[in-house]
Amino acid sequence: GQQVMQIPQYQHVQEGEDFTTYCNSSTTLSNIQWYKQRPGGHPVFLIQLVKSGEVKKQKRLTFQFGEAKKNSSLHITATQTTDVGTYFCGCSNDYKLSFGAGTTVTVRA
Amino acid sequence: KAGVTQTPRYLIKTRGQQVTLSCSPISGHRSVSWYQQTPGQGLQFLFEYFSETQRNKGNFPGRFSGRQFSNSRSEMNVSTLELGDSALYLCASSLTDRTYEQYFGPGTRLTVT
Q1: Closest Cα of chain A to B84: distance in Å?
Q2: Contact B102/A31, CB-based, under 8 Å?
Q3: How confident is the model at residue B41 (pLDDT cuts 50, 70, 90)?
Q4: How large is the C-alpha radius of gyration of chain B?
Q5: For residues B55 and B64, what is the distance between their CA atoms, to the nearest angstrom?
Q6: Ranges under pLDDT 50 in chain A
Q7: B106 CA to chain A: closest CA distance, Å?
Q8: What is the pLDDT of residue A106?
Q9: Chain A residues lying within 8 Å of B98, measured CB to CB
Q10: Nearest-CA distance from B104 to chain A in Å?
Q11: With contacts defined as CB-CB under 8 Å, which chain B residues touch A98?
Q12: In Å, how far are A18, A64, A86, A109 from A21, measured between CA atoms?
C-alpha cells in the first residue's frame, strides 16, 4: 500500500527563521494536500497541488509538488508564533487519501 | 456556511461497551470520511461514505463500523471497546467522493477506561 513519510517529525524554530518540511510518498500521486492542526484543534485544509512541479504561495508559506509527483515540500519564511502546530500532508492516489505523521512545529520567541 | 459538526465532543466509556459517534457534514457535501488520531499513530483512515455507500475502508477491525444517511449525516460505531480505542475521532466532509479537499470537524475525544 501507499506509504507516506514526513520529515522532520519535530521542528523547533527560532521566531523569524525559515524552515522546510518534506512529504515523501512511495507511489506516484494524483495530488497532494497540506493541512495544519493547531494544538487542541482539528486539521484545517491549507492547499492542494495537482500538477508536476507546481508551486503555490500563501503569504509566508510556499508549497511545492515534485516533478515526479512523489514528494512535496512546505517552506515557511520568517516564522511567527502563529505558525505553531502540526502540518500534515495528505497524499491522494486512486481516490484514496493517506496522511503523513505530520511535522510538529514549535517556535522560540 | 456552517462547518462540520460532531457530537458528542467528549465521551468516557469503559472496556467492553459500545459507542456511537455522529457527524454532520457541511451543507452540500456528500462524502464523509472518518479518521482516528492518536499521538503515536497520527491520522489513521477508518472509512469513507458517499451516497450512503461505503467507498473505502482502512485497516481497522470489524468492531469499527459506520453508516451514512440520505441527508449525508454519518455515524460510526465502535463495539466492544478496548483501552487502545482511546483517541480523537475526526470526521471530514468533502463535496463528492472524487474531491480530495477535506473539511474536518472538531472531533470526538473518546476515553476508554
Answers
A1: 18
A2: no
A3: confident
A4: 13
A5: 15
A6: none
A7: 5
A8: 97
A9: 95
A10: 6
A11: 45
A12: 10, 11, 11, 20
Chain A residues touching residue B35 (CB < 8 angstroms): 99
Q: Give the model's pLDDT for residue A1.
A: 64
Q: Which residues contact A27 (CB under 8 A, 6 or more apart)?
A: A2, A3, A70, A93
> What confidence score (pLDDT) does residue A3 get?
85
The set of cell numbers assigned to B67 is 453508516
C-alpha gyration radius of chain A:
13
- Residue B99, pLDDT score: 74
Question: Is B105 in Cβ contact with A90 (below 8 Å)?
Answer: no
> pLDDT digits over B58-107, tens only?
999 999 999 999 999 999 999 999 999 999 999 999 987 777 789 999 99
Q: Residue A43 corresponds to which amino acid?
A: P
| Contact assignment for A35 to B102 by CB distance below 8 Å | yes
Choose among B82, B78, B55: nearest CA to B65: B78
